[in-house]
Amino acid sequence: MTVMSYIEAINRAMKEEMRRDDDVFLLGEDVGKRGGVFRASEGLYEEFGEARVIDTPLAESAIVGVGIGASMYGMKPIAEIQFVDFILPAVNQIISEAAKMRYRSNNDWSCPITIRAPYGGGVHGALYHSQSLEALFASQPGLKIVMPSSPKDALGLLKAAIRDPDPVLYFEHKKAYRLLKEDIPDEEVLIEIGKANTVREGDDLTVITYGLCVEFSKKAAEKLATQGYEVELVDLRTVYPLDEQAIIEAAKKTGKVLLITEDNKEGSIISEVSAIIAEHCLFDLDAPIFRLAAPNVPAMPYAPPLEKAFMVSEDKVYEKMLEVAQY
Amino acid sequence: MSEKNQILTDRQLLDMFYYMLLARRSDERMWLLNRSGKIPFVVSCQGQEAMQVASSFALAKGVDYTAPYYRDVGVVLTMGMTVKELFLQAFAKAEDPNSGGRQMPGHFGHRKLNMLSGSSPVTTQVPHAVGMALALKMKQQPAVSFVTLGEGSSNQGDFHEGLNFASVHDLPVIVMVENNQYAISCGIEQQVNCAKISDRALGYGIHGETVDGNDPVAVYTAVKAARERALNGEGPSLIEAVGYRLTPHSSDDNDLTYRTKEEVNAAKEKDGLIIFRQQLKKQGILTDELESGYESKIKALIDEATTYADEAPYADEQTLFDGVYHQ
């Protein structure tokens, strides 16, 4: 076991996969000599050289589109978008091309690319360095979207993403990079894509969330336990396609459901989770489905009080948990 | 032309003529099938066969990769797609190797032929071809990738992003703009304000040239040289082949709402297929006997392909869900 931060786990995943498979390579802005603006690829350029750790021109559609082309040859590219907020120029490549490559060619071609992008707020990143854009891609069959909540998950899910035969969007929370640390086994860690994870068991209410909100929820749940309420906490891990079975079982278990996302509330990942529960669990629910999310304003402001007002936090999660528990 | 002819044997010239004729007659048949209500849609190669066939003759079949655009009947036939396969895609039948009938006609892709799958949003194929070239370079393969697009599509961001990326990394890719003077209804003067599309090469620091797209020997020479440069590590080339779109944009378009019959008729005088035939005849390379032999062979092939594709089954409804992800 070694104590590792979330970003160190990401770095380890890339190193291990690049050592294991010569076809794996990294491309993106500042990923080479600089080792990434967050240092996620630190040491990779030195170990694998400029041919496999490629500093690209500043052009996101090309980062993804060139990655797609290379993946069609059989390479396993990891395309890094510096901030998820800058992924929009590449949306055509992701949705029109990567998501549909296998389907439109009737299984002739495939596109085993991993697209990594830091997302999330609470780091004074303002409107364009704080967003959560997963919902934009979460209605596109052909894509998979994973969002790790812990260093161990960051390691195991990234390794699985790189090995996946289909395009995977891997959204990593930039505030989690150095905030979260834990003991990780030195042996290989692989975490199956498409499966949710029960982080904590409880009988009083079910919380379903993902990403950094899992950490807020873990802490809030500990505090809530002192009030006599035990939380069943489910981390979606893969936000698309959703693990419907796990969602349904978790909702039925307690009959009270709180869904949490850092994203804007409307049309979010938890909107779909809510629809799944509504479709399958009507007679098992003892309360309406509750949602805690960012307000429906365009994005997170820079000024600290406004940022704090926008952002989901441990305190907000605790208050909402208590409300649901006491319903 | 006689001087340029020295680089091609009589046999090669005749083969080129055969494929140009094959593309034209196939396209003509598709219009007949469309107008008689047999197939819902045609998007044509007519007027561009010379540039398509000649450029493909300069490539190495089974070695190089192609990313054709929707008019490239001449490219796909030359690179090895059979007439039967071409008609299977026109009829959208299960056996179509391009997409199993999932895509509209003209959306080519054939893995066995190293032909990348294409979509409808234009120019997305340029970064893919660049990515393929990146993979070829990384794997030290003695091969190039070849991608085509229309002149209107050269305004897309993916054109710029792809060419710039290819130039920065000296990638073995040949980008050929098939300038047919029209982006649906909009003439070239509404698309660009530079004298030549190939002028854009200057901005990327790469080789650029404009050739007469109706002159197959000129196109062959330019693409052959581009291939040599690419294999020598001299990076990408931008070749503009100038021709004319002799048909409406598609079977759903009426081109006389934006151009005159006189203009189209004048362009027909310069039709590369007609001129090439005249030249080969004048030089005694193509005889009447050979030509009528080609015509009857082609007619038999197209008749057979039409009947086969017409009678072939559509994909079963149960296959709707196949190929979303790896299974």
From TrEMBL, chain A:
Q: Which InterPro entries match?
A: THDP-binding, Transketo_C/PFOR_II, Transketolase-like_Pyr-bd, Transketolase_C
Q: Where is the Transketolase-like pyrimidine-binding domain?
A: 4-179
Signal peptide as annotated in the record:
none
One Pfam family it belongs to = Transket_pyr
Q: What are the entry keywords? A: Oxidoreductase, Thiamine pyrophosphate
Q: Which domain of life is it from?
A: Bacteria
Cofactor(s) this protein requires: thiamine diphosphate
What Gene3D superfamilies does the database record attribute to this sequence?
3.40.50.920, 3.40.50.970
Keyword Secreted listed? The answer is no
Q: Which GO terms describe its molecular function?
A: oxidoreductase activity
Q: What is this protein called?
A: 2-oxoisovalerate dehydrogenase E1 component beta subunit
Organism encoding this protein: Halolactibacillus miurensis
UniProtKB/TrEMBL annotation, chain B:
Q: Name the cofactor(s) required for activity, per the record.
A: thiamine diphosphate
Kindly state which reaction or reactions the protein catalyses: N(6)-[(R)-lipoyl]-L-lysyl-[protein] + 3-methyl-2-oxobutanoate + H(+) = N(6)-[(R)-S(8)-2-methylpropanoyldihydrolipoyl]-L-lysyl-[protein] + CO2
Q: What is its EC number?
A: 1.2.4.4
Source organism superkingdom: Bacteria
Q: Which residues form the Dehydrogenase E1 component domain?
A: 20-315
The molecular function GO annotations come to: branched-chain 2-oxo acid dehydrogenase activity
Q: Which UniProt keywords apply?
A: Oxidoreductase, Thiamine pyrophosphate
An example of a Pfam family matching this protein is E1_dh
GO terms in the biological process aspect are: branched-chain amino acid catabolic process
Family membership? Belongs to the BCKDHA family.
Q: Which PANTHER family match?
A: 2-OXOISOVALERATE DEHYDROGENASE SUBUNIT ALPHA, MITOCHONDRIAL
| Functional summary from the UniProt entry | The branched-chain alpha-keto dehydrogenase complex catalyzes the overall conversion of alpha-keto acids to acyl-CoA and CO(2). It contains multiple copies of three enzymatic components: branched-chain alpha-keto acid decarboxylase (E1), lipoamide acyltransferase (E2) and lipoamide dehydrogenase (E3).
Protein name from the UniProt record:
2-oxoisovalerate dehydrogenase subunit alpha
Source organism per entry reads Halolactibacillus miurensis
The taxonomic lineage of its organism, from the top, reads:
Bacteria, Bacillati, Bacillota, Bacilli, Bacillales
